[in-house]
Design brief:
Helices cover 48% and strands 19% of the residues. With 812 residues, it is of the alpha+beta class. It has a 7-stranded mixed sheet, sandwiched between helices. A 6-stranded antiparallel sheet has the order 10-9-11-17-12-15, with no helix packed on it. The chain has a 6-stranded antiparallel sheet with strand order 20-25-24-23-22-21, sandwiched between helices. Helix 6 packs antiparallel against helix 11. The radius of gyration is 35 Å and the shape is elongated. The protein starts with a helix and ends in a 6-residue tail after the last helix.
């Protein structure tokens, strides 16, 4: 977690969608350029998510256009959306453009006669905010988004995938005859065969392979090198060598060599690397499915109720205060409060809790949930980015764009990797030319090309982010929101878990556990006590009334109701004087009726240390005792058992009394407990555990536990879907179930295992195969690696890393 000083220094966070990255070296270049921009506190660019997350310095924040320019200066683009706003006249357009230009997230706003043309970053500002700021009244309703190219991430991925697929298919069809002619070793020789291979390879290299050539040229213009540089140098070297051999064969014969061509190497390298890019693009699209599924939860249209009429309108047209109709089986479109009707609401998409919750008038419902069996009218309380669903989407996006600490090693390697590979390739070529076997020129060229092709760092760049993307997306579907991708690694190392009691291990609300009848039966005690308490707002009174309702008991009219703060209530029920409250209060009331105090309530073992006993007397006679407790969640004991199986020590920290804490700890199997604590006492325990070398997570409600949540290595808030407490915690649990914390820890550990596997394979791949490609095994075993095999292996390395990460989607 960031320290307090970091939080003071760093201001807001901006996410920019990046276009044009082809490997981790691209991400590193953009990251360095953004980091140099005045006012940028931190910059993190994720190759897999194609996003830059920029934390701005609170004292001197740069503008969004400055950040966009910085990305462009590094040779890449920020994906923007374009918007046209028709106005009534040129003067109005100018005024609207001036207002829009000042909005955070707008790159530029210009006037074209009576139309305002706006370019903006969709991840920073939305369409509705721009229209609102334009202040065009009814004219704004005619506005329409007219992007110059698709801006929906799914559409961008689809078009890029289809473009790569077309290039690959063309390359494969043209490369096939080249390979057949070349590999026939003279069996299919005919006059002009080399000219045919040259003609076929030109469109493969310069059209299908243009994605690599263009990328390499852009990198060169910015004095940098990346994956495209390696591919372009390798392909052009093989192609140029072959062209010289066809056009000027005498050059080689003069040097004592028979000219050979390697058009098949150039063509097949392009074909196989394109195949890898096609498969990688397809696989990367699957890693973002979690966010897309969340976005699909919100309906595009709503049944808006105005003036008694129901009209279907786009969800973006709704404003706070509108009433919308949600029919049985439909999804709730926006956050709001039920005004009419009732239904069992399925919240599983947000919380992971499979059992629908019965909700009636006055209760809150959330966008994306389903009304299963009833029609309800909902008053809209939140729209747009403020809904819980959109908050979840934002959190998942930010977590997926983050970097785990383990990624730093890969980043450091990537920063020097491409230049180092070029040096290794050049060195290998020189050695083979000087001391290698004949034909020296040919062998030197082949080693140079093979080293360049085998060394592509794509797998290294995908190893960590793809695992984080899939892990955080799967966790969100289980009701576990990870605020920062870096927390995945920290969570996996937790060995000590501090747990608040109330609302975490227990239900967090008082509930009647037992009723002991003395002079009357238990139901009669409950009926009289609930009637007397029916006018009280005390939580214990609510618990008694709720229990009477659950038992089907009637609440009788009362008179002479009096409440004495901190003691209890008295009232007349059915003509009898009923006292409900503390023992001393009820006993005093009994004494006034001439009943002696000694031994008034002899309950023996009925009252346990964790009970709050509410005493009841009727006309001075002891009637009974209502035993109230904060019930332990049914899932808590199972969750504690899972923590122990994972090697995690559990410690309960609570402000409750020691007897109550001991009871809960004993029932659920807590290893250690501390009671009667103030918030600052909890932070001291967190600090003490951390000082002894433990990795500490704190689980609490995110409000009174906020200091301890912030100080712990990982803060986990039990939000229950109503208060994510994301400012104080790294992880928010969307359902009131401690087992969800166990799910979060287990999926984090699985994610870290996958990251380590990915990095191992990526590093081993390069460490082992680069020397082989350079030819170090040839003097001893005569083993050489062909450029074609190198390109196939390079393409499949990235695919294997992404596929390994996708295994996390099957986490249960």
């Amino acid at each position: 977690m960031e320290t307090t000083e970091d939080q003071k220094r760093l201001g807001s966070k901006v996410t920019l969608p990046i276009e044009g990255m082809t490997c981790v070296a691209c991400a590193a270049r953009i990251e360095r350029r953004l980091g140099k921009e005045a006012g940028v506190g931190q910059a993190s660019v994720n190759y897999a998510t194609e996003e830059a997350v920029v934390r701005l310095d609170a004292a001197s924040e740069p503008s969004i256009p400055q950040l966009v320019k910085a990305v462009r200066d590094s040779g890449y683009e920020v994906r923007l959306e374009a918007l046209r706003l028709p106005t009534s006249n040129a003067a109005t357009a100018t005024q609207a453009a001036n207002r829009i230009s000042s909005l955070r997230g707008v790159v530029q706003a210009t006037c074209d006669d009576e139309v305002v043309q706006v370019e903006f970053v969709p991840s920073v500002i939305g369409h509705n905010r721009i229209v609102e700021a334009a202040e065009l009244g009814s004219v704004a309703g005619e506005s329409k988004t007219e992007p110059t190219e698709p801006t929906d991430p799914d559409e961008v991925h689809r078009q890029r995938y289809e473009s790569l697929l077309r290039r690959f298919v063309a390359a494969a069809l043209l490369s096939a005859p080249i390979v057949v002619i070349s590999m026939a070793h003279g069996a299919i020789a005919f006059p002009g065969d080399k000219w045919v291979m040259l003609a076929l390879s030109i469109p493969v290299v310069f059209w299908s392979g243009s994605v690599f050539l263009t990328g390499a040229w852009n990198a060169l213009k910015h004095h940098a090198a990346d994956m495209n540089t390696l591919v372009a140098m390798g392909v052009l070297s093989a192609f140029a060598y072959s062209v010289v051999a066809v056009l000027f064969p005498g050059v080689f014969r003069a040097a004592g060599e028979e000219p050979a061509v390697y058009f098949e190497a150039a063509a097949v390298i392009v074909t196989l690397i394109l195949l890898g890019r096609v498969l990688e693009e397809r696989a990367k699209g699957r890693t973002t499915q979690a966010i897309q599924k969340l976005l699909q939860l919100q309906p595009h249209h709503i049944h808006l109720i105005r003036n008694g009429q129901v009209t279907d309108v786009p969800v973006d047209d709704a404003v706070v205060g509108d009433h919308v109709l949600v029919r049985p089986g439909e999804r709730v479109p926006l956050d709001g409060r039920i005004m009419e009707g009732g239904s069992a609401i399925d919240e599983s998409a947000l919380t992971g809790e499979p059992i629908p919750i019965d909700k009636t008038v006055g209760e809150i419902v959330y966008a994306g949930t389903v009304s299963t069996d009833g029609a309800v009218t909902v008053q809209v309380d939140k729209v747009g980015e403020s809904t819980l669903l959109q908050q979840i989407v934002r959190l998942v996006r930010e977590a997926q764009a983050g970097k785990a600490p383990i990624q730093r090693l890969a980043d450091r390697v990537a920063a020097i990797f491409v230049p180092a590979v070029i040096v290794i390739a050049a060195t290998a070529a020189i050695v083979w030319f000087v001391v290698g076997p004949e034909p020296a020129t040919t062998n030197a060229m082949i080693r140079f090309v093979t080293v360049l092709i085998i060394s592509c760092p794509c797998a290294l760049g995908l190893a960590t982010p793809t695992a984080i993307m899939v892990a955080t997306g799967r966790a969100a579907s289980l009701g576990v929101l990870v605020r920062d991708g870096a927390a995945i690694e920290t969570i996996a190392h937790i060995d000590t878990l501090l747990l608040d009691k109330t609302g975490t291990i227990t239900e967090g609300r008082p509930s009647v556990e037992d009723v002991v009848g003395l002079s009357m039966d238990a139901d009669q005690v409950m009926r009289l006590a609930a009637s007397a308490e029916s006018r009280s707002e005390h939580p214990l009174a609510r618990a008694i009334v709720d229990e009477a309702s659950r038992r089907g008991l009637s609440i009788e009219p009362v008179s002479d109701f009096i409440t004495e703060t901190g003691l209890g209530v008295r009232a007349t029920v059915d003509g009898s004087a009923v006292f409900v409250g503390r023992e001393a209060f009820v006993t005093k009331g009994s004494e006034s009726h001439g009943v002696p105090q000694n031994g008034l309530y002899s309950l023996g073992s009925a009252v346990q240390p964790h009970h709050t006993a509410v005493y009841v007397s009727v006309d001075g006679e002891p009637a009974g005792v209502v035993l109230i407790a904060d019930p332990i969640r049914n899932s808590s004991a199972e969750a504690i058992r899972k923590f122990k199986e994972a090697g995690i020590r559990t410690v309960m920290v609570t402000g409750d009394r020691a007897p109550a804490a001991e009871h809960v700890a004993t029932v659920v199997g807590i290893d250690e407990y501390h009671a009667s604590l103030l918030p600052q006492d909890k932070t001291k325990i967190v600090a003490q555990k951390k000082s002894t070398g433990h990795t500490v997570a704190m689980v609490g409600d995110g409000i009174n536990d906020a200091p301890a949540l912030a100080l712990s290595d990982v803060g986990i808030s039990m939000g229950g879907g109503t208060d994510l407490a994301v400012e104080a915690s790294d992880v928010a649990i969307m359902r009131d179930d401690l087992r969800a914390v166990s799910d979060g820890i287990r999926i984090s550990r699985a994610g870290l295992r996958v990251i380590k596997q990915n990095l191992f394979f990526a590093f081993i791949y390069n460490v082992v195969l680069i020397p082989v490609a350079a030819g170090v095994l040839y003097p001893v075993w005569g083993i050489l690696l062909s450029p074609i095999f190198a390109s196939a292996a390079m393409a499949m390395s990235s695919v294997s890393v992404v596929t390994n990460s996708l295994r996390l989607k099957r986490f249960r």
